[in-house]
Amino acid sequence: MKVNLLRTALAATVLAFAFAGCSSVNLDEQKPAPITDASKGAAKPGTDPRAIVAVDASSTKPIDPFTDPNNPLSKKSVFFDFDSFVVKSEFQPLVEAHGRYLASNKPRRIAIEGHTDERGGREYNLALGQKRAEAVKQRLMLLGAIDGQIETISFGKEKPRAVGSTEEAWAQNRRADIVYK
Amino acid sequence: MQQKNRSSSRTSVTRRALCAAIASSPAVSLAQLRVEITGVGSQQFPIAIANFARNATMPAEIDAIIRADLARSGLFRIVDAGSQPIAENAAISLPEWKGRGADALVVGSATRLADGRFDVRFRLLDTVKQTQLDGLSFVSPASDLRLTAHRIADRIYEKLTGERGVFATRIAYVVQTSRTSWELHIADADGANSQAALRSREPIISPAWSPDGTRLAYVSFESGKPVVYVHSVATGDRRAVANFRGSNSAPAWSPDGRTLAVTLTREGNSQVFLMNADGSNVRRLTTSTGIDTEPSFSPDGASIYFTSDRGGGPQVYRMPALGGSAQRVTFNGDYNISPRVSPDGKQLAFIGRRGGRFQVHVLDLASGQEVPLTDTALDESPSFAPNGRLLLYATEVNGRGILASASIDGRVRTRLSGPSGDIREPTWGPFIK
């Protein structure tokens, strides 16, 4: 979110400089061009070609629901119990938000990426991660998302978010991530 | 017919020798082995392998490699041959070697030729019958001396056991060297001489050798999701053969190399499909509502073993490769995965979780008798040697992934040498023609 705002602000600044450049005065056309005239112009607000007016993009841009921490759409990870692919009730707000969003934004596409903790075989974990992704997909479809919007894939235990063999790390890694395309 | 007769007489020689071995001296010297061996049993064929005479420094210690190969098989006990080199043309007192407890003796030499190649010669002598069992000369470039040593070990193994040796075969495995670096390696069967066939910034899993040993099928996540590739090892040519919507994984070759079994999720959860080895003619094989994965063909190609959670937890099932109903194969414990059938079709290796420990188990398919093969806790990916005598698997020691092999009777286990990094996903290649 911060990165996006920063980008917008930067773009605004670059634009401001660009316009300032466009309105620069060609010395050849301005025959007498006394230095005092130029400083007079600077005295009038809004006419100084070198003036810079700061624009706060954050006040004009609508809040991005996917990055607003107060919006359930900003949460994109569903966590699971050991050896389980049941979507727990605490993730119902998250699931509902994405399901309704997809239902009313049919061109949007997502991937759901399933993950597991490090225990057990690689291929079986890949299938278990797939089952987690598939469980989230079924919930989204109950809310009106359609099959063609959602690809479910799995990384099994190959790309853990948290490293280590602790229950905390395992809990972080047993999840399905919603990734908007 | 002739071959068969020789074979059976060899086996009886070995049996007599094994009986003799029980009474013989247990003196063992493993000082020169590059591999770490545990669980050495007593009913092993005692063999002495003298240091090879040489006229130059050898880039590979042929004698030590032969000793390590034979020891790792679990069928041999290496009798100390002292440090004195003995050439194949030296005068030898076989009764003296018999007296030292060796029922067979290997002697030889490696001579550096003018062109830089080596002439490697060896003799295998039977100290009981006081005869020569084998004698051969190999001319090999310096870079192939390890392979020459493995070939000599294979000949010794075959002469004394009547079965083909696997020491000159190759293995493949995956090494993860950092959070963003994976490599698919191919190495000699002892883990030495490893070379990368593929490097990627995303995971690589489940390599499987084609039956002719020229190609590897595997799963690569390089495109951001699991896709099955077939990769020609000698040329580096590779193509995605299963890249459907969802996840594509767990490739297994049919014994004739024409068909691949893979796990696809294009119709929902993970199910086993068959396809031609070029990716064409995809058809669904399993039909459950849960997970069906890790297909593995029986050696006759008629059956497919696979992992399924259709009964609750993961268990191994078997079904006809042409389709039909599945039968459950594993019944002990609540987590049994990664089935691999032995080359003779009589045994099933798999990973079973017992008391929180994931261990390689071997199940006798006729009797249903099952034994754990290891004493480690995080075993994965069992793979039979092409002669069925050894199992290669991945495990973890001190937090690092390593490869290990175990003799099929569980008596001898070996940790293989290899590059640094987390090593996993071993697959044992076929006999080299």
CATH architecture of the largest domain in chain A: 2-Layer Sandwich
Find the CATH superfamily of the largest domain in chain B.
TolB, C-terminal domain
Sketch the topology of chain A as an H/E string, one letter per element.
HHHEHEHEHE
The CATH homologous superfamily of the largest domain in chain A is named OmpA-like domain
Report the biggest beta sheet of chain A as strand number plus sense, adding barrel if it closes: 4 strands, mixed
Report the CATH C-level class of the largest domain in chain A.
Answer: Alpha Beta
- Percentage of residues assigned to helices of chain B: 10-25%
Write down the Rg of chain A.
26 Å
Number of strands of chain B: 31
CATH class of the largest domain in chain B: Mainly Beta
Shape of chain A: elongated
Description:
The complex is a heterodimer of chains A (181) and B (433). Chain A is built from 6 helices and 4 strands. The two termini of chain A are 17 Å apart. By secondary structure, chain A is an alpha+beta fold. Chain A has 2 domains: 2-60, no CATH class; 72-180, 60s Ribosomal Protein L30, Chain: A. Chain A has a 4-stranded mixed β-sheet. The model of chain A is unreliable at 10-23 and 38-43 (pLDDT under 50). Chain A is elongated. In chain A, helix 4 crosses helix 5 (122-142). In chain A, strand 2, helix 5 (122-142) and strand 3 (150-156) form a beta-alpha-beta unit. Chain B folds into 2 domains: 2-161, TolB, N-terminal domain (Rossmann fold, 3-Layer(aba) Sandwich), CATH 3.40.50.10070; 170-428, Neuraminidase (6 Propeller), CATH 2.120.10.30. In chain B, 13% of the residues lie in helices and 42% in strands. Chain B has 433 residues and is mainly β. Chain B has helices spanning 2-23, 62-72, 94-99, 145-161, and strands at 36-38, 45-49, 53-54, 76-79, 104-112, 118-126, 131-140, 170-178, 181-188, 195-200, 204-209, 215-220, 227-232, 238-242, 248-253, 259-264, 271-276, 283-284, 292-297, 303-308, 315-320, 327-328, 336-341, 347-354, 357-364, 370-372, 380-384, 390-397, 400-407, 413-415, 422-428. Residues 1-37 of chain B have low confidence and may be disordered. Chain B is built from 4 helices and 31 strands. The relative contact order of chain B is 0.11. In chain B, helix 2 (62-72) crosses helix 4 (145-161). In chain B, strands 2, 3, 4, 5, 6 and 7 form a 6-stranded mixed β-sheet that branches. Classes of the chains: A alpha+beta (181), B mainly beta (433). The A-B interface holds A 83, 111, 119-124, 126-128, 130-131, 134, 151-156, 158-159 and B 203, 205-206, 221, 225-226, 245-247, 249-250, 263, 265, 268-270, 290-291, 293-294, 307, 313-314, 335, 337-338, 351, 353, 358, 380-381, 424-425.
